[in-house]
Amino acid sequence: MTLQDKLEAMREASKVRIPPDARAIMQRSVDDLRASGIMSRIASAGQAAPDFTLPNASGGQVGLKALLARGPLVLSFYRGRW
Questions:
Q1: Distance between CA 58 and CA 40 in Å, rounded?
Q2: What is the DSSP string of 21-80?
C-alpha cells in the first residue's frame, strides 16, 4: 500500500469517526487557510530551514545550527488541535 493509499484510507475512516458538524468546521478552516495564500509560503520538501532558537523541555535555549553541528536532524512540526 502506498503512502497516498494510506492517507486516503485515513480520510475515509475519519468520515465515520468525526461527526459531520466537526468535519464541516475543519473543512472551513482548511478552506480559509488555502484562501489566505498560505500554501505559497509553506516550506517544501528538501528546502533548508531558516536558523532558529527555541526553548527545550528544560527551559534552555537550543539553536538549529548547534544541533546540525552534531549531525543530521529531523524536524517535526505539530499544528496542534483543530
A1: 35
A2: HHHHHHHHHHHHHHHTTGGGTSPPTTPPPPP-EEE-TTS-EEEHHHHHHTS---------
Q: How does pLDDT run across 15-47, given as a tens digit for each residue? A: 889 999 999 999 999 999 999 998 888 888 888
Work out the angle at residue 31's Cα, subtended by the Cα atoms of residues 34 and 14, and round it to the nearest 5 degrees. 120
Strand partners, 55: 61
Parallel/antiparallel/unpaired status of strands 53-55 and 61-63? antiparallel
pLDDT value of residue 15? 87
Taking the whole predicted model, whether its pTM rises above 0.90 is answered as no
